[in-house]
From TrEMBL:
Belongs to the UDP-glycosyltransferase family. Its EC number is 2.4.1.-. Gene3D superfamilies: Glycogen Phosphorylase B. This is Glycosyltransferase. CDD domains: GT1_Gtf-like.
Length: 462
């Protein structure tokens, strides 16, 4: 949101206020106020008990607060502000849509993932209507094996134009089908609430690039009745990312990378916010990295819930060849010539950063949209491979496939093609979309006029 705010402020004579819950605000380090360039970060009381440490509050606690406590606080804040032209709402915080509407303010959505994941949740009402899932998100078809290509298996799902069959999505890859039944029901209700509230929006800003799925899937990328502005490439601002990091990065990473040979280092990170990986899986990954015999840099939070699976004495045993830090300056790492591949959780921001810097990926999705993102990286773009398990042998085998031989060369070619798209034509389109959006904000006061924006672009053809 801060990256979007900075991009908007840079292109218009406006000030942008970014309102975040207090437990986010207290983690924003040096960026907890006015940056002097038109962007102000303010805190909204949430009532969430939080010590501000490495581990954020649990998801259930956050969702409850966002639905039952924060709306009234945001409404009180809006009542004290003058001259608001438009409210941009992160759709994962869809509770803010009716709050802004009650004040008669124009609302534009902001989807922080790729267009495909938005599409995968907007069809939920259709999936219920056509009898593929229940009202609580449970699959009604009993003959679907998790390993099947879900969309291809259900031929009549093609009429819904969910996502291309080329992705080879499995039923369990849908964003709400995770963990146990209770978790699935809760997540399904969360996504369904977003879909219902977002229906009132006529324009949505998307943190992705135009034609992300290629020419053959262009028809899948555009849900009817809404207009979309792809701005993702314009938000990949290295300086701003450094300022807005929620975690203190270990800058010694770069000095260490400087001592390594070009293209030799395995970079590993499973994000900073998603649920930590189970200890036994961390054990397998750790042993697999050691077995490669290659240098590696692993960003792994220094917290028992994240490091419990490291073998005894592991950090000491791999010292010199392997470097483990709590958090790395990711942009600086990915653009370093020593990095040869990225073992990742498939979080969308990480995928975009890897593509921007031309780094091959090994995908190990954990939750939420990671599985759809992984399907695009592996099956649509051919820019990476999927890690089938955390087993030591699988880790070693995947690293060797990506870092060596003909397969590694083909992956790098595909990554380079996407890099050209994101840093070239897609970046130009993203900047144009931001300019169009700002022109409407500045020149129009009518709520309906605020969102009449569109664009024509050529999709990426993988």
């Amino acid at each position: 949101m801060l990256q979007l705010a900075r991009a908007l402020a840079d292109r218009g004579d406006v000030s942008v206020i970014v309102a975040v819950p207090d437990f986010i605000h207290r983690r924003m380090g040096q960026y907890r106020g006015d940056d002097g360039n038109g962007v102000v970060l303010v805190s909204v009381p949430s009532g969430v008990q939080d010590d501000g440490g490495d581990e954020p509050p649990g998801a259930a606690v956050i969702v409850h607060a966002m639905e039952h406590q924060v709306p009234s606080q945001l409404e009180r804040m809006l009542s004290t502000m003058q001259g608001i032209s438009c409210v941009v709402v992160d759709l994962l915080s869809s509770w803010a849509i009716p709050v802004a509407a009650r004040w008669g303010l124009p609302v534009v959505g902001f989807w922080v993932g790729m267009m495909a994941t938005y599409r995968s949740v907007t069809v939920i009402p259709e999936l219920i209507k056509t009898g593929f899932v229940t009202g609580s998100g449970t699959l009604l078809s009993t003959d679907v094996n998790d390993e099947d290509n879900f969309i291809k298996h259900h031929h009549d799902l093609g009429d819904l134009h969910i996502l291309p069959a080329k992705l080879k999505l499995r039923a369990r890859d849908l964003p709400w089908l995770v963990n146990g039944a209770v978790s699935q029901k809760t997540r399904f209700a969360f996504w369904l609430q977003i879909v219902k509230r977002a229906k009132s929006l006529r324009s949505i800003i998307v943190n992705s690039f135009p034609g992300e799925g290629g020419i053959e899937s262009d028809g899948y990328d555009r849900p009817q009745g809404q207009q979309f502005l792809h701005v993702g490439p314009a938000l990949l601002n290295e300086d701003l990312k450094k300022k807005t990091s929620m975690w203190q990065a270990d800058q010694t990473c770069i000095d260490w990378l400087d001592t390594q040979s070009p293209g030799s280092v395995i970079y590993v990170s499973f994000g900073s916010w998603a649920a930590p990986i189970e200890p036994d899986k961390i054990t397998g990954i750790a042993r697999g990295l050691e077995a490669t015999g290659r240098p590696f840099l692993w960003a792994l939070k220094n917290h028992p819930s994240w490091r419990a699976g490291l073998p005894d004495g592991y950090i000491e045993n791999v010292a010199g060849r392997g470097k483990i830090v709590s958090w790395a300056p990711q942009d600086d790492v990915l653009k370093h010539e020593a990095v040869g591949c990225y073992v990742m959780h498939s979080g969308w921001n990480s995928v975009m950063e890897a593509l921007r810097h031309g780094v091959r990926m090994i995908c190990y999705p954990i939750c939420g949209d990671h599985f759809v993102n992984c399907a695009y990286v592996v099956n649509m773009w051919k820019a990476g491979i999927a890690l089938p398990s955390s087993d030591e042998r699988d880790v070693k085998d995947c690293v060797e496939r990506v870092m060596e031989g003909e397969e590694g060369r083909r992956l790098q070619e595909k990554v380079n093609e996407l890099r050209e798209v994101i840093t070239g034509e897609a970046l130009c389109v993203a900047r144009k979309n931001i300019n169009l959006f700002m022109e409407e904000i500045i020149n129009n006061d009518e709520a309906d006029e605020c969102t009449e924006i569109g664009q024509e672009t050529k999709p990426y053809n993988p």
